[in-house]
């Protein structure tokens, strides 16, 4: 199997910065509760439009990575668990009734993305060391 460490179209860093940008609007709704629903929906739409599709692409890459890296399955499984936690955080944001709840869940989501990015980086390093990497762009 041909493998490479090509990055996905949306990097985790870009997604985290975009999450911060939409999260600021959500945070501002604490002081202006009339803007909460719109701000929350904006964060949720970002997650459904940009973040969750990225995680789906990651899953296809992880299947390939498991085949390319001896012992890569453990790290791939950890990344899958993180992906499920990220999806759960998105649902928590969507169901938040108060601005503070939504902001807390958004901050947790940001932290989960940082961990996810680090583990994916570790897997890419292992792939490079093994001499073959799955094509993450496919």
> Which class best fits the helix and strand makeup?
mainly alpha
| Oligomer class | single chain
Report the biggest beta sheet as strand number plus sense, adding barrel if it closes.
none
Helical run tally = 4
List low-confidence stretches.
none
**Cα radius of gyration in angstroms:** 16 Å
Main features:
4 helices; 138 residues; mainly alpha
What does this structure look like?
It is a single chain. With 138 residues, the protein is mainly α. It has a domain at 12-51 and 77-124. It has four helices and no strands. It has helices at 12-28, 36-68, 72-95, 99-130. The longest helix has 33 residues, at 36-68. The chain is elongated, with a radius of gyration of 16 Å. It starts with 11 loop residues before the first helix and ends in an 8-residue tail after the last helix. The relative contact order is 0.21. The mean pLDDT is 86.
Short description:
This protein has 138 residues and is mostly helical.
List the helices and strands and how they pair.
Layout: H1 12-28, H2 36-68, H3 72-95, H4 99-130
Helix pairs in contact: 1-2, 1-4, 2-3, 2-4, 3-4
